[in-house]
């Protein structure tokens, strides 16, 4: 796997955040807008259980590079 083009998914049960490292330009919008979820110095660096689904979607939509996307999980 190419370390410069990793794709990872993180979920809080309602929404899943998809991060693609190859697209990330490190603008910092995610960290500034939702520091409870996006913590680049920690592992894992995305912890969606620390925020509401609405706030996560709002934050992901501010990603200028498209490195962060999301999808809503199906409800049973």
Would you write up a description of this structure?
This protein has 76 residues and is of the alpha+beta class. The chain has helices spanning 29-33, 53-60; strands at 7-11, 15-20, 68-72. It contains two helices and three strands, in the order E-E-H-H-E. It has a three-stranded antiparallel sheet with strand order 1-2-3, covered by helices on one side. The longest helix has 8 residues, at 53-60. The model has no long low-confidence stretch (mean pLDDT 95).
How is the largest sheet built, in terms of strand order?
1-2-3
- The average pLDDT value, as a whole number, equals 95
Outline, from the CA principal axes?
globular
Q: How many E strands? A: 3
C-alpha termini separation: 33 Å
Helix/strand order: EEHHE
What amount of the residues lies in strands?
Answer: 15-25%
Largest sheet: 3 strands, antiparallel
Radius of gyration: 12 Å
Percent helix, as a range, is 10-25%
The poorly predicted ranges are none
Using brief descriptors, characterize the structure shown:
single chain; 76 residues; alpha+beta; three-stranded antiparallel beta sheet; 2 helices; 3 strands; globular
Quick structural summary:
With 76 residues, the protein is an alpha+beta fold. It has helices spanning 29-33, 53-60, and strands spanning 7-11, 15-20, 68-72.
